[in-house]
Amino acid sequence: QVQLVESGGGLVQPGGSLGLSCAASGSRFSIYAMGWYRQAPGKQRELVAVITSSGDSTNYADSVKGRFTISRDNAKNTVYLQMNSLKPEDTAVYYCKARVLGPLGVTYYDYWGQGTQVTVSS
After folding, report:
1. What does residue 17 show for φ and ψ, rounded to 5 degrees?
2. pLDDT tens digit sequence for 38-55
3. Hey, which residues does 42 pair with through a beta bridge?
4. DSSP 87-113
5. What's the whole-number average pLDDT of the chain?
6. 21 near 38, Cβ under 8 Å?
């Protein structure tokens, strides 16, 4: 159904910045929300940030507040994650997720990208 492709991951030194992008395609219905999750080795996958198309509501994990910024371009069906002041503990595979509402608006479907590696190390 919906295909999500992440890009922008890589290696960065502590205190540096990195920007991630996630492009969605193939959605028959409007994407209600898009978000970023991350998972480090041996850790649970956790929410990083999420943004909704209606109202531009955003939510962030406490660990990234003030450092990360999520944004989206609905015309391009793309969500971005600007990461500043990166810390070693930010190292993880970052996954993009899209939530699509069904035609009746009472059902939703979640789709995941394949993930992109972010490594913060000196």
Report:
1. -130, 155
2. 999 999 999 999 998 775
3. none
4. -GGG-EEEEEEEEEE-TTSS-EEEEE-
5. 93
6. no
d(CA 109, CA 122): 39
What is the rounded radius of gyration, in angstroms, for the C-alpha atoms of the chain?
Answer: 14
Provide the token pair at 44. Answer: 């649970």
> What does the pLDDT look like over 81-91, one tens digit per residue?
999 999 999 99
| Residues 39, 109: Cα–Cα separation, whole Å | 21
Structure tokens at 80: 């971005």
Pick left, alpha or beta for residue 70 (phi over 0 → left; psi -120 to 50 → alpha; otherwise beta). beta
Tokens of 5: 């492709």
Residue where the block lists tokens 């590696």: 117
User: Residue 78 corresponds to which tokens in the numbers above?
Assistant: 């793309």
